[in-house]
Amino acid sequence: MARFRVGYQIHPQHCTTDQIRDAYRNADSLGVDVIYVWDHMHPLYVDPEGPHYTSTPILGGIAVETKRAQFGTLVSAVAYRNPEFYAYEVWTLDRLSHGRAILGIGAGWFERDYKEYGYEFGDAPSRLRELGKALPRFKERLAKLDAVHGDGKIPIMIGGAGEKVTLKLTAQYADLWNTFPPVDTWKRKNEILTDWCAKVGRDPKEIERTVSVNAGKYEDVDALLAAGAQQLIVRGVQPFPMEPVEELLKLAGR
């Protein structure tokens, strides 16, 4: 089996903050390459009214309580984030962690978050237009911070699989890209991303291809790797058991 990087995504719902802290510290100690947290205001499954926690403070905890893993959101919704200020926040997280932060961003999709927190939901095309406007602003602000402080490039991750807009934006701006199985769908989207790279003049090897997988459901790992996946991300559901992470690490040759 080909080597691949291992990611771990924390779902910060139906749990305590102590359980979240244990999860990211345990994942880091096991040798996970990247730790992610989603960016929502409400639980996405089980009880919709259960406890839930926001992403940026959790990233701050990861920055100072872990030692080696990269970390970021998978992914933040652009509507909730002023691009310049969010780039500044992620840059600060990068400094706190000695260079391990990733800026994860996407168009957003969960209508309840928007409506209950006062954001305009619009429609999918309008949200994608906002993403397209924001991405060069993220890049410009990160470049300005780097020019002043000389601290190195912070990678941008885009989540999504829209063939006409999202994958084009990924080819133009991203350093990592994520979407979901099934394998045949992921493979086709990956090939379209590579085609977009050719059209916009980007080396496709500059974009790390990642895929989210359910904990313990690893029967498609070989097929995903053959399709071009370079990082497999375990979805970490409560109460955040580490056995699925250990299993995936073993498959990765750790």
Largest sheet: 9 strands, parallel
Strand order of the largest sheet: 3-2-1-9-8-7-6-5-4
Separation of the first and last Cα atoms: 12 Å
Helical content band: 40-55%
Strand residues, percent: 15-25%
Structural class: alpha/beta
The parts where pLDDT drops under 50 for at least 5 residues are none
Radius of gyration: 17 Å
Q: How do the SSEs run, as a string of H and E?
A: EHEHEEHEHHEHEHEHEH
Count of extended strands: 9
Q: Number of helix segments?
A: 9
Global outline = globular
Rounded mean pLDDT is 96
Describe the structure.
- The structure is a single chain.
- The chain has 254 residues and is α/β, with parallel strands linked by helices.
- The chain has nine helices and nine strands.
- It has a nine-stranded parallel beta sheet with strand order 3-2-1-9-8-7-6-5-4, covered by helices on one side.
- α7 (183-200) links the parallel β7 (176-179) and β8.
- α1 crosses α2 (55-65), α3 packs across α5 and α6 crosses α7 (183-200).
